[in-house]
Fold:
Amino acid sequence: MSNQEKSSGLPYPVKLVVGAVLMFGGFWLSQNAEQYLPFQHGLAEKGIPLDLGITIAVIGVFLILFPVINSFYLKPLADAINERTHALESTFGEAESLRAEMTKMKSDYEQRLVATEAEARAQIQAQIKEAQDLRQSLMADANAKADELVKRAQQEIEAEKQRVLGELRSSVVTLTLQASEKILGENMDSDKNRRLVTEFIDKVEVPS
Structure:
């Protein structure tokens, strides 16, 4: 027994017989309505066209054709609807799973982006500090070398100054003695006279 027969309670052959009886009986009753259904004439005069025989025949036809309609139209339609429903549910499930996965991927990406930005910021700060330290170290070295160069230059200038002054003093002493010789007509170039002139120049020399 099929599911249809279990759900309706009657086997199809019984329905076929009942449907045939109703169909042919309804047609016969419709043909003899004036004899057996006289009330229909009164209803038609009141604007209610009712053919009870045709109605019974249609019910019989429906009982005969319903299993065929169910097998070739209603059942395939229901199966297609169920299949489409399952496909949509599967699609919605996959879409929801994909949405959850995309949300997780977005969250992971944002976390990695924040971590990468923090790491890059820390590296930039470290490089800036390293550059500042190197700049300070280079400036300190440059200042030390500059101070050393200045000190050496001052020492060299002072040494050159003393050398020039010594040569100039010696020249002045020589010129002074030579001038004295011309004035006095005597040889004035002696160690004693040179010492006296040198001491005199040292006393009158104006410091720079």
